[in-house]
Amino acid sequence: MDKTVGVIGLGIMGGAISRNLLERGWRVIGVDIDAGRRAALAAVGVEVAPDVANLVRAAPVVLLSLPGPKALNEVAAEIAATGVSQRIVAELSTFSIEDKLSFQTTMIGAGHAPLDCPLSGTGAQAANRDLVVYASGDRAAADACAPLFADFAKKSAYLGAFGNGSRMKFVANLLVAIHNVATAEAMVLAMKSGLNPLDVIEVVAPGAGGSRMFEMRAPMMAREEYLPATMRISTWSKDMSIIAEFAKGLGVETPCFDATRPIYDEALRLGFGEMDTAAICRIVAGHSNLYRDKLARSRKSV
Predict the structure, then answer these.
(1) Is residue 130 domain-shared with residue 232, that is, in the same domain?
(2) Where are the alpha helices (DSSP H) in 90-152?
(3) Which terminus of the chain is more solvent-facing, meaning fewer CB atoms within 10 Å of its CB: N or C?
(4) Where are the alpha helices (DSSP H) in the chain?
(5) Last residue of a domain, one of 138, 162, 186
(6) 111 and 42 share a domain?
(7) Residues 208, 148: one domain?
(8) Per-residue pLDDT of the chain (302 residues; tens, 9 = 90+)
(9) What is the rounded CA–CA span in Å between residue 10 and residue 261?
(10) 183 and 137 share one domain
(11) What is the DSSP string of 247-282?
């Protein structure tokens, strides 16, 4: 396989993926509208293309890590307009099924092989190659990308028809939303009862009550440190709306998931949008009259 890959979108996820691919011998060509991101990635070896068209001409495989449907539609149109021979174009972000299918239609119409490949994991996990790729679409294209996926993720799974990757991501993110709030509830309960946060983390994480979100987010909650974000609350709120609409469209009740949404919404209203989703611990603590300044000694030990 030609070890040249294009990455469109060099933010938290795209930037981490690019760095990992560079470390494993890939020639990475990147594009981003943000000059700061372009400069940061160029400094570590990413070849920054002047535009999408030049990137697509140079790379047989293109990864998209984009912030919203508008950006996806614009980039898809730019790729289609290049007129180059078939490229594998893997979309890695979380969008509605309708947005993904629109992308698929544009790519197929231009002769390309689209893949729907959302990622399970945060920015911190991306930096450590601790992601799972939910691949769906053309089987041959997905198989051709397996070596690429293996160099920035710990696992990839082929899930069949285009769109199944997103459906699996919605299921996973529903659980993430719940586990994150459950972690905040547990940490606030523990701290208000007088337990040392470090003891809670050490004892609960490996036990029956632990979860991957508890392992990742409980230390942040104990320290009251939510920047830099591994998943911004503003981005997460967009993902939650997509999940809610998906479940509603299928007539599936989601009582636990629904109960978490006002907490994330309140965090957003209070200006926590750029913080990590772990910051919802502040909301639960506030509702519980937990004053964190009394826990300074415990926080320092975490």
Answers:
(1) no
(2) 97-109, 123-127, 139-144, 146-150
(3) N
(4) 12-23, 35-44, 52-58, 69-81, 97-109, 123-127, 139-144, 146-150, 164-192, 197-204, 212-223, 233-250, 255-269, 280-287, 296-300
(5) 162
(6) yes
(7) no
(8) 689 999 999 999 999 999 999 999 999 999 999 999 999 999 999 999 999 999 999 999 999 999 999 999 999 999 999 999 999 999 999 999 999 999 999 999 999 999 999 999 988 899 999 999 999 999 999 999 999 999 999 999 999 999 999 999 999 999 999 999 999 999 999 999 999 999 999 999 999 999 999 999 999 999 999 999 989 999 999 999 999 999 999 999 999 999 999 999 999 999 999 999 999 999 999 999 998 764 443 444 34
(9) 29
(10) no
(11) HHHHT---HHHHHHHHHHHHHHHTT-TTSBGGGHHH
**Same domain for 146 and 27:** yes
What are the tokens at 167?
A: 């459906």
Residue 184, Cβ density class (10 Å: 0-12 exposed, 13-18 middle, ≥19 buried): buried
Residue 280: domain span: 168-300
Based on the structure, what is the number of domains in the chain?
A: 2
Return d(Cα 56, Cα 74) in angstroms, integer.
14
**Please, which residues bridge with residue 6 across strands?**
29, 62
Which residue among 107, 141, 162 closes a domain? Answer: 162
20: domain CATH number is: 3.40.50.720
* CATH code: domain of residue 247: 1.10.1040.10
User: Does 157 share its domain with 19?
Assistant: yes
C-alpha separations of 168 from 83, 196, 246 in Å: 32, 37, 11
Query: Is the CB of residue 9 less than 8 Å from the CB of residue 32?
Result: yes
Residue 152 · residue 9 · CB < 8 Å = no
Q: Taking the model in full, what pTM does it have?
A: 0.91
